[in-house]
Specification:
about 110 residues, alpha+beta, globular
Length: about 110
Amino acid sequence: MDCLFCKIISGEIPSGKVYEDEWVYAFRDIAPQAPVHILVVPKTHIASADEISAENAVLVSRIFEVIPKIAKAEGLQNGYRVVTNVGEDGCQSVKHLHFHILGGKQLAGEMA
Ligand code: DGP
């Protein structure tokens, strides 16, 4: 499968890794939209949040266990935003489920 984030997870493409365990990989976004902009992904390929099912939902749970740890390590004690884009209308550019952690400044109040 020709998936950019699968290649990042495998190390074929370098990334600024901030966290890794058996199920989850997290790395700095190449085009940060906030002082802290990290992508958190399941190591297993899931195309988007639209593909979350009873069979793979445990991976999403693992991701959401990791997110507060990353936020703490990045000093986001004043808050942050977690975003996942889905499909064309959602402006998803990489078809591997990923959650953006955005923080390090007062974020915009509007989300769309
Ligand atoms: P989205 O638009 O939600 O699919 O977000 C994809 C994000 O992936 C976007 O913010 C930029 C980031 N990105 C794209 N290519 C690379 C890459 O090669 N390395 C890293 N670290 N991030 C990338």
